[in-house]
Structure formats: structure tokens, C-alpha cells
């Protein structure tokens, strides 16, 4: 890995400008036909200038997602009193940068204000409060969001409905009613169901597929399913299992996206763990790359400096593609390569090595790297795979070196 010997601030100053005109994660994803590669962010981090400089780097991030500031406790802290100040900061940043915005989220059991979670409800009164929340928030952000996560984490791990307050008073009908309410407030925004442990076949993924069918059975609209992707180094589901699971959703007529990708490890991080993390990131991103219904990938913040992992999973961390000093880890190259870009080493005037990246879609490279694209309709890049890998056909638009 390059740029590890200098101090963090010098790295940020010395390395990042090298990348400004290079193919990055988003430009490579778009060259593959995806809509975006993006990252979550959050309001407190926006005071960190070095952090925002890279967040603003649209070669890497064509989309951002507010981590917290559009959630129910942030937007409607007391009943029918709405505050959009923090959410607007991130929506406005996306707009100023020309980045897409994934809006997150409308109905979730967690981060509810106490007037909801501890309220006295009937089916009818909770339904009215839920509809009022959705209508106001979706209307406020109308035209600014690519997609809304309408219902988040509505399932327990065994595939039964999560026994949240909405389910208790309204029953499963809260899910299709939430989608219908969001569609009425903004007919153009993509409406997603978003959850974790639905990235591979199993009871929970099957249950999420049943949610798609349930929503449609009510005559309501669902456009997509968000596969969160909070994974663990060394036990990340395989590329093929993720791709076949995506295909199962696509067969129901919805798009998919990887919405919250991070791959944590037990600390301290080692070279071996970082190498495995690179493989795990590459396989996951490659599953989206090979699946035409997968529109994009969002990492759940790009730097370990602001990852939610250490405070949530004791003893674990280092889950993001950039380290806590905002330096790229091997995972970055794994993602870039899975998106058909290649990383090459060059020397700077000072003699220290840095990383620049080019996209094989320019046709400038004669050998495609592992996980790189090697064929497909319209493909003008390399069709020969690096030694040890084979060009594998997925569909008429995409073949990949595996
Ligand atoms: C980030 O982008 C925003 C909007 O384009 C701009 O106002 C801000 O100055 C940028 N910040 C940095 C640190 O580049
Ligand atoms: C709550 O009301 C809605 C709307 O009338 C209905 O669809 C749903 O079945 C009701 N839930 C229960 C548990 O009665």
C-alpha cells in the first residue's frame, strides 16, 4: 500500500490532488452502466475540511446518503412539528456537488421520538401519525431524492415480521400503506424496502421478497430493495450467492442496490485482514457489477474515522475502504477493480509513490484484472484476463475475470 509512511495531513494534501482527474469509484461504476457509487455521511463530520474535501470528490462519490438527519427523531421530534435543518444541509451539499441523494428513512423501529415509541395508540391514530410523517417528509424533499428507504428493517432475523410498534397496532398493512403514502407524496421518487441479512438466500431474504409481493398485492408501488451489506471480514457472503440473491429480487420486477456496505474486522487490523477485506469488498461490489438490476453501491461512510462500527460492535472496526487518517486501504483498489477500473503505481516528483487510477473502459489496458470486466455488448476494453483468472460470461452485457 502506498502513502503509508507520511503523516496524515501530508497524505491528505499530497495524495488526494493526484486523484482529482483520475477514474474513481463513481466514474468506474457509471462506465459500467451503474447509476452511482456513493457513501453515507452525517452532519457532525461536515466540520472536518479534509473529510469534506474527499466527500466532495465526485470521481469517487456520485451519491450521498444522510446517516441520521432524515430519520423520524430528527425530522419530527414532536408530533406534527417538522425540522429539516440538518437533513437539508446534506441534501443541499448533494445538489451543489451534482451528487444523487438516497433519502433514509421514513418508517423504522429505531430512532423514533418518544411520542411515537411511548405513545398511546390505536390502529387508526398510529396510521394517521405515520401517514402524516411520510407525507410531510417526502413532500419536503420532493425532487431532491433519487430514492427513499420507505420501510427500514421490518423483519426479524428468522424472517417473521419485526414486532415493532407499527406492526403491533396496524399489522403487516403498515408496510404497503407506507409505500402508497410515499408514492402519493412524490410519484417520481424510487421507493425501497431496506434491510440487512437479506444479501444472500435464506428465510429473511425470502421474507423480504414476500414483502415486495405484499406491497404489490395492495396495489401499491415498490421500485427497489436495499441490501444493506454490513459484513464481517472473512465471512462475507460469496459473490455468486449475492448475485443469485439479487437475481431473485430482480425476478419480482424491482431493482436492487447495496445501500450500507461496510466490512468490519476484529481489531487490531493486520495486513492479512486488510487483504481479506479487499477480497470481500471486491466480491460484493462485483456481485452488483454483474447484475443489471443492481443500480449502485453505497458504503456506510468511507473512512474508519467516522464509522459507526466501533461504538456498536465492541472490539471491532476498520470496516471502511479508507482508514482513520483518510488514507486508502487495499479495499479501495478491490472495489475499483471490481468496477472495471485498474490501479497503477506512479512516482511523484518527491519520489514517494502514490496511486492513480485509470479505467479499462478506455481500452488503454490490454489485460483485465481479477473482477474486472472483460466483455459484453459495447465493451471496448480488455478482453484478456490477468493470469490465474478466466473471462466468465454473465449476460450479453457483462463478462468478468474470475
Ligand atoms: C464541498 O462542496 C460544497 C458544495 O459544492 C462547497 O460549498 C464546499 O466548499 C466544498 N468543501 C470542501 C472542503 O471542498
Ligand atoms: C388497521 O387498519 C388498516 C386500514 O384500515 C387495515 O388495513 C389493517 O388491517 C388494520 N390492522 C388491524 C390489525 O386491524
UniProtKB/TrEMBL annotation:
One of its GO terms (molecular function) is cellulose binding. Its EC number is 3.2.1.8. Residues 1-22 form the signal peptide. Pathway: Glycan degradation; xylan degradation. Residues 366-402 form the CBM1 domain. Keywords: Carbohydrate metabolism, Glycosidase, Hydrolase, Polysaccharide degradation, Secreted, Signal, Xylan degradation. It catalyses: Endohydrolysis of (1->4)-beta-D-xylosidic linkages in xylans. Residues 26-338 form the GH10 domain. GO terms for biological process: xylan catabolic process. Belongs to the glycosyl hydrolase 10 (cellulase F) family. This is Beta-xylanase. The lineage of its organism: Eukaryota, Fungi, Dikarya, Ascomycota, Pezizomycotina.
Amino acid at each position: 500500500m502506498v502513502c503509508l509512511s507520511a503523516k496524515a495531513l501530508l497524505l491528505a494534501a499530497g495524495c488526494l490532488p493526484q486523484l482529482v482527474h483520475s477514474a474513481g469509484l463513481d466514474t468506474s461504476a457509471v462506465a459500467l452502466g451503474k447509476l452511482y457509487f456513493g457513501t453515507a455521511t452525517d452532519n457532525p463530520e461536515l466540520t472536518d475540511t479534509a473529510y469534506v474535501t474527499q466527500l466532495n470528490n465526485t470521481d469517487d462519490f456520485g451519491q450521498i446518503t444522510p446517516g441520521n438527519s432524515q430519520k423520524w427523531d430528527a425530522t419530527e421530534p414532536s408530533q406534527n412539528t417538522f425540522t429539516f435543518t440538518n437533513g437539508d444541509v446534506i441534501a443541499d451539499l448533494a445538489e451543489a456537488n451534482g451528487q444523487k441523494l438516497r433519502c433514509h428513512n421514513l418508517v423504522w423501529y429505531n430512532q423514533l421520538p418518544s411520542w411515537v415509541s411511548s405513545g398511546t395508540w390505536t390502529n387508526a391514530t398510529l396510521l394517521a401519525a405515520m401517514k402524516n410523517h411520510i407525507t410531510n417528509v417526502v413532500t419536503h424533499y420532493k425532487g431532491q431524492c433519487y430514492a427513499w428507504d420507505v420501510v427500514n428493517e421490518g423483519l426479524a432475523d428468522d424472517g417473521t415480521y419485526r414486532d415493532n410498534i407499527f406492526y403491533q397496532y396496524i399489522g403487516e398493512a403498515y408496510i404497503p400503506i407506507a409505500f402508497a403514502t410515499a408514492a402519493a407524496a412524490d410519484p417520481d421518487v424510487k421507493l425501497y424496502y431496506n434491510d440487512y441479512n437479506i444479501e444472500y438466500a435464506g428465510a429473511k431474504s425470502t421474507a423480504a421478497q414476500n414483502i415486495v409481493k405484499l406491497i404489490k398485492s395492495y396495489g401499491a408501488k415498490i421500485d427497489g430493495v436495499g441490501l444493506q451489506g454490513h459484513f464481517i471480514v472473512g465471512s462475507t457472503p460469496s459473490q455468486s450467492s449475492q448475485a443469485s440473491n439479487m437475481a431473485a429480487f430482480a425476478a419480482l420486477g424491482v431493482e436492487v442496490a447495496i445501500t450500507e456496505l461496510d466490512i468490519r474486522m476484529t481489531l487490531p487490523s493486520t495486513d492479512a485482514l486488510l487483504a481479506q477485506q479487499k477480497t470481500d469488498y471486491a466480491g460484493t461490489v462485483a456481485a452488483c457489477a454483474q447484475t443489471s438490476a443492481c443500480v449502485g453501491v453505497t458504503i456506510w461512510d468511507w473512512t474508519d474515522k467516522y464509522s459507526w462500527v466501533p461504538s456498536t460492535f465492541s472490539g471491532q472496526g476498520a470496516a471502511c475502504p479508507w482508514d482513520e487518517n483518510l488514507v486508502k486501504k487495499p479495499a479501495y483498489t478491490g472495489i475499483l477493480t471490481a468496477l472495471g477500473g485498474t490501479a497503477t503505481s506512479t512516482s511523484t516528483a518527491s519520489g514517494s509513490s502514490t496511486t492513480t487510477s485509470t479505467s479499462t473502459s478506455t481500452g488503454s489496458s490490454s489485460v483485465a484484472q481479477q473482477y474486472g470486466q472483460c466483455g459484453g455488448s459495447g465493451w471496448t476494453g480488455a478482453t484478456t484476463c490477468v493470469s490465474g483468472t478466466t473471462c466468465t460470461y454473465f449476460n450479453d452485457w457483462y463478462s468478468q475475470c474470475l
